[in-house]
Design a protein that fits this description.
Number of strands of chain A: 4
Helix content of chain A: 10-25%
Structural class of chain A: alpha+beta
Strand content of chain A: 35-45%
Order of helices and strands of chain A: EHEEHHE
Largest interface: A-B, 20 and 21 residues
Oligomer: homodimer
CATH topology of chain A: Alpha-Beta Plaits
Number of helices of chain A: 3
Radius of gyration of chain A: 14 Å
Number of domains of chain A: 1
Chain lengths: 101, 101
């Protein structure tokens, strides 16, 4: 069963361009990962506090996704991610979904 | 720019099968709608209160999605949706996203 992994980010107003640039120039090392299908960055609505963004990756199965999170590729892709903290409010919030229909 | 429309539902524990059945048997009238690409129903995690689900439809653009919400097809697809209320906690919560990368 396909699986969609999303990570939600509340980006401080005015920091949107900088946040997008991080993703545009990021090396994800995903292309050779087993079960990985596609990756997108999504931009949601803004309110008075923040603009919502979400990463959106599609996998052949939840197991493939979990294996990736324990892999060396995952570590490499997230190295230095902590230094982007000033761009967002709170922590990124993960949500995973089975594609059932 | 592609657009993803998601509607989040908090389903009362034990009502999951009934909720999925509603979607399985639903006529969405989407296939002939301009700009519509694909539809999926996603199942997220459960906590002590509910199981998270989300509808997930992909569109050629936000404008195509907005036009659909004002159309006769939309009215037809949502006729009677109110009667499923006992299955969920609170209201469905809409989130729309531009696919920027």
């Amino acid at each position: 069963m396909k699986y969609i992994a999303m990570n939600r980010f509340k980006i401080i107003l005015g920091k949107e361009e900088e946040f997008e640039q991080v993703w545009r120039t990021r090396e994800t090392y995903l292309d050779e990962v087993k079960g990985f299908k596609e990756f997108h960055l999504l931009k949601g609505e803004s309110n008075e506090e923040y603009t919502l963004y979400s990463s959106h990756s599609v996998w052949d199965s939840k197991d493939d996704f979990i294996s990736w999170t324990k892999s060396e590729s995952f570590k490499k892709a997230h190295r230095g991610a902590g230094k982007n903290k000033p761009l967002y409010i709170g922590r990124p919030m993960f949500e995973g979904f089975d594609v059932i229909l």
